[in-house]
Amino acid sequence: MLGVPPNLVELAARAGVSAVPWGPDSQRLLESELVQVRAKSSNPLIRVRALAELGTYGWMRLAADLDSVASRATVIVTSFLGQEVARAIAEKHDLAQVAVHYFPMRPARSVSLLEEPVIAGAVTNRLVWGSVSAAWRVLTRGGEDRMRASLGLGPSRGPLAARMAAAAGLEVQAVDPLLFPELSAEWGVRLPLVGFVDVDRDTLDAISGEDPSLDAWLDAGPAPIHWGFGSMPVGDPRVTLELVRRVSLELGVRSLVCAGWSDFAPEGDEQIRVVRSVNHRAVFPRCVLAVHHGGAGTTAASLRAGTPTLVAWFGADQKLWGGRLADLGVGSVLRFADLDCDRATTALRALMAPSVRVRAAEVKGRLIDPVAATAALADLVERAEARDRWRAGREGVRPAAPELASVAGADR
What is the pTM of this model? Predict the structure, then answer.
């Protein structure tokens, strides 16, 4: 059984998958006053309270939705967001649990959350990771314990990662080891890296909702720059569109703007084309450059296309993805709020160098194939279910023909 936020049920249907609405509407959340105002407040108290509310947003509803079907399942699969809810459901119904991380979320010696630690890099890195883990625990513990109480469970005991490890839960990294080359050795089978997962071509075509006239526009001139910020709502689309036009004229290129969840006004001429959504797999290879927010899925798409990329990040893991592209020599990174004509033009002109394009093609050829990555993830889920079936058979507590329960998380 597949559960997704209510706003993504129709998307699942276009992919040919029957899904049920679970938890809150993710688009409304990202566009809410909580995310757009309070979580970005300059007042530390307001911001901390907003982050605490955001960290556990919708957990009570999600827990109730999952609880209603969990008795028919043997394994529950979630993304990073919602893991605490899944852990509670797994405990209550004695299920195996698999979490799919789209970015390394656990403390790692080889991944630094700071660009350049000033002193004692290894020690600083441990302290920063520890602080992040502790902060998440502080922000979410109250909400988690209230959610657990609603399921008839006692309070949580210790960090989630430790509880998952104790229960033999599996945290799979849907990340290509090329971007984090030391993590595979550091984490091994405990937190396996399988590569960037993706859907097959037919499914992607079905869900892309692409403008049928886009091919004609792409064929009518030189390769454009792709601009798109996915689920990150752009504060002033009119100003951003004007920035795109100025940069395009400065560089002498066309631009394709993917509106995503932002309210860009329809526009179409020889210089600029605005569309609601695009099939990244089909469009990125036809673009000279890509500019996007640095979400895990979009980053994977530009890497697979061999398209040099400017990451204009908003928050969360996006800045670090941009840094990884820069480290690989195939991209650069700027905060979206700092994006202006001069900075964007300078960054993009550097990425238009032929040597960057050659490097991007080289990196593209070294990535794990998405079909292999997806198959590896599926194998790990099936092994987790098989282990649970074996244990259940010994203990005599599991029904004979259970279903697979899954809850989809957004690309942050």
Answer: 0.81
Give the pair of three-digit tokens for residue 306: 């061999």
Q: Is 27 helix (H, G, I), strand (E, B) or coil?
A: helix
Q: Is 65 helix (H, G, I), strand (E, B) or coil?
A: helix
Q: What span, in angstroms and rounded, lies between the C-alpha atoms of 274 and 259?
A: 7
- Record the tokens describing residue 146, joined without a space: 């209230």
pLDDT score at 115? 64
Helix, coil or strand: residue 6: helix
pLDDT in tens, 175-232: 999 999 888 888 888 789 999 998 877 777 777 766 678 888 888 888 999 998 887 8
Contact 30, 232 (CB under 8 A): yes
Q: How far apart are CA 64 and CA 89, in angstroms?
A: 9
Token pair listed for 171: 């945290």
CA dist., res. 347 & res. 192, Å (int): 34
Q: How far is CA 363 from the centre of its chain?
A: 21
267 has pLDDT over 70: no
pLDDT tier for residue 11 given thresholds of 50, 70 and 90: confident
User: What are 102-134's pLDDT values in tens digits?
Assistant: 888 888 888 877 765 555 567 777 888 788 888
Of the candidates 117, 18, 5, the residue with the CA atom closest to the CA atom of residue 61: 5
Higher pLDDT, 132 or 92: 92
List all residues 6 or more positions away from 279 whose beta carbon is below 8 Å from its beta carbon.
204, 205, 208, 210
Is-contact 225 290, C-beta < 8 A? yes
Three-class DSSP category at 401: coil
- For position 330, what pLDDT does the model report? 96
Please, is 235 exposed, middle or buried when counting C-beta atoms within 10 Å of its C-beta (0-12, 13-18, 19+)?
exposed
The alpha carbon of residue 340 and the mean position of all alpha carbons in its chain are separated, in whole angstroms, by 26
Specify the residue for token string 């074996």: 390
Q: How far apart are CA 408 and CA 80, in angstroms?
A: 10
In 311-401, which ranges are continuous DSSP H helix?
318-328, 341-351, 354-366, 370-395
Pairwise CA distance, residues 130 & 358, whole Å: 39
Residues 6+ apart with CB under 8 A from 107: 126, 129, 130, 133
